[in-house]
């Protein structure tokens, strides 16, 4: 062989040997533990699951999912990767009922158990099967909580307290505010104009429907209302007096209160976590905080995590979803919920901390003072309210 | 065996060559920057396709560029397409995009109504919504005019604008067509004023005679409607100078943009005391079956990106108000400052957005109350128009006719080659629609180009009509230079200057051989606008021009 050829061959051999040596060194760590220890099998490919998530819980869930994903939790030796899909509960409910999800999500973090039950009924009607379980290991289970509260600009609250000589400001007082012609009639400032209520869009945000049911609870002075009561003309006329003052029924109407300040609304029933999470920015932008007032009866979003048990997802998918649920209910993610303004669902984790603690001076309470919990209305009741809303405000 | 001397040098050269191949090429490949899709480029497979509204083009493209340049390699890029609102809504329903960013959330209810038209039970098409930039709708008024109206001492509003417009025939204002949020919302403000309300506008209010008469009287003072997006209006003001209008409706950001760049008199943003609306530029994921999981993930990443403080500060520097509440309006770099004739403490009052049904009613009733027009379509049929050009022109003209109000606007057709022919006399479409369409369809090319004679012909006829209640306009299209006839450009300029009845003149330079300089002079004299076009774009252009009426 010619000298040049020898040179080339030598270089290639050196390169090849170097590569082999590198690979050996890289994979050689386990062998340093000593003879007789079996090598850990390589994890399999990622097991991807998806969770459709109610919007108020999405920031928390996305943060926890990122953490969970980075920790590479294994289910049957496959690292689980969680994808979070934000979607309002009404849209999600409709998709479940009509079978419009493609692909079908592995789990659903809804606003409340009532929505999950309704979705289950919808799927049962369509397919003859229950897909969200009420019992057993894979049961639907709340993972975080947040009540629906009044958020009222602090100066506005002061004026209302003075006018009504009461700290209990709720639908009755705000109804009266809605029917007077000017804020000055209520002891407010002339530049406040007229009273403006804020309410989430009833067709796009379950909080809107929940607020309307809560109004019924106060109107009838009880925590459970029937479909007939929700359809009663006297109640609806009374409710309309307040809803007529809503400036913007868009899907982003509640966010508009924070973005546009008092010009968009004086008070509204809003998910507590949303207010707590935005309180700092709100004060910075408007030099005035919102005060939290707890209605009585009070409605809650219990954010149930519902694992889809239909045949479209595999047993392994379901197992992964279960693993993620257990992770969500563990201590650190539950404590992290407080930093997002949510309350832990795990009873072993205290609610004193995070944003609940931080905004105490704005009326936030660890122990909710309300005497009773507002029950969710039936599907027929909610449908009746929605139809009334459409007929009154969308034509 | 030792390698020495020349052979050693040869071996060394071979070794060096091998090392170059093995080492340098991979280095070069890895150093290549991630290629960003440019605007207008075909979207990459899997890209997040987003349609955005024209008035925020500068901001939106900056955000897209920043995102595409900084995204993780496994995150799809954003591919952005600018669309007028009507086209955006249609394209969204047709599944052409994964996301949209209209000028206002006011369109979202309409989008869902369009989507659910064939299936009322279908889930909404409007999915996740993220806002990233806000700008209130204002009345933009020249400083001198604002002072005359009492600014800054007096609180001004829609009523003051309307009083001034009806009292002073020289006062010229415009609002965009109701196909943009600012146009729709300005019109809504008129209806509120006409109904004597600030909230809860109903269909009955729209149909009340008093409301209709009020809105008609206001619309009668409109110089012309903004067929183009407001950013183009402001761009023209900067480029051409002068005061073609005393006031117009636009988003606050455009007042800032103008004041930043103008040399002469500035604009003032008037925040209507009765109330106004916000352009909130939502970024909306479409929940359509065509949207892939990858696009959904990309949307989420892009939505988070535009809401981050760094991007929100970019928003602030572009003259918009940020949605991130911790980014203060008086931060360094903010343009929301009194020195730009805007007020960060405003607007203090918002008008209530009417129900979707009432908004649809406003668009319909407005078409019946807006100032009607006399329009002369002047069309070049010289020999050079033969083939695709004439075919394209016919299609555009037929589309134009289809969008004219049948009972109110009046249209005439004039064609020119060696001579000028008044093909169809001025009339409503109910009177001459069939003749117009038949004449357009039957156009033939041949002969020279009596451009100046044709413009004079149309202008003289409009003077004879002597109808100042209407918007009088000529839309003249030519692919060449004037080669026939007896009149000159000077004749046109003198006639227009001496006219008793103002006539807007829109010119279309069709193809590369048209004399754009002459056409621009004619349009400028006629207080109109000059456009260029070709067979591919002529139809779209005429659809734009019809928005001015």
> How many β strands of chain B by DSSP?
16
Tell me the span between the first and last alpha carbons of chain A: 93 Å
Please tell me how large the radius of gyration of chain B is.
Answer: 28 Å
Which percent range fits the helix content of chain B? 40-55%
Which pair of chains forms the biggest interface, and how many residues does each contribute? A-B, 48 and 53 residues
Described by the principal axes of the CA atoms, the overall outline of chain A is: elongated
Shape of chain B: globular
Helix fraction of chain A, binned, reads 40-55%
What is the tally of helical segments of chain A? 15
- The count of strands of chain A amounts to 12
Helical segment count of chain B: 20
Per DSSP, what share of the residues of chain A sits in E-state strands of 2 or more residues?
A: 5-15%
The main β sheet of chain B shows up as: 6 strands, mixed
Which structural class fits the helix and strand makeup of chain A?
Answer: alpha+beta
Calculate the mean pLDDT score of chain A and round it: 90
Task: Please state how the strands of the largest beta sheet of chain B are arranged side by side.
Answer: 13-12-11-14-15-16
Widest sheet, order of strands of chain A? 2-3-1-4-11-5
Strand content of chain B: 15-25%
Low-confidence region ranges of chain B:
26-37
The oligomerization state is heterodimer
Give the gist of this structure:
With 395 residues, chain A is of the alpha+beta class. Chain A has 15 helices and 12 strands.
Short key terms for the protein model shown above:
heterodimer; A: 395 residues; alpha+beta; six-stranded mixed β-sheet; 15 helices; 12 strands; 45% helix; B: 549 residues; alpha/beta; five-stranded mixed β-sheet; globular
Tell me about this structure.
- The complex is a heterodimer of chains A (395) and B (549).
- With 395 residues, chain A is α+β, with helices and mostly antiparallel strands.
- Helices cover 45% and strands 13% of the residues of chain A.
- In chain A, the strands form two sheets. A six-stranded mixed β-sheet of chain A has the order 2-3-1-4-11-5. In chain A, strands 6, 7, 8, 9, 10 and 12 form a six-stranded mixed β-sheet that branches.
- In chain A, strand 2 (74-75) and strand 3 (78-86) form a beta hairpin.
- Chain B is of the alpha/beta class and 549 residues long.
- Chain B has 20 helices and 16 strands.
- Chain B has helices at 5-31, 57-70, 85-93, 108-115, 143-149, 158-167, 181-195, 203-207, 209-219, 230-240, 252-261, 293-307, 309-317, 356-369, 388-402, 429-441, 451-465, 489-498, 516-525, 538-545, and strands spanning 48-52, 78-82, 99-101, 126-131, 135-142, 173-174, 247-251, 267-270, 278-279, 282-286, 373-380, 410-416, 420-428, 471-478, 504-510, 530-533.
- A six-stranded mixed β-sheet of chain B has the order 13-12-11-14-15-16, sandwiched between helices. In chain B, strands 2-1-3-10-4 form a five-stranded mixed β-sheet, with helices on both faces. In chain B, strands 5, 6, 7, 8 and 9 form a five-stranded mixed β-sheet that branches.
- In chain B, helix 10 (230-240) packs parallel to helix 11 (252-261).
- At the A-B interface, helix 1, strand 3, helix 3, helix 10 and helix 11 of A face helix 1, strand 4, helix 12 and helix 14 of B.
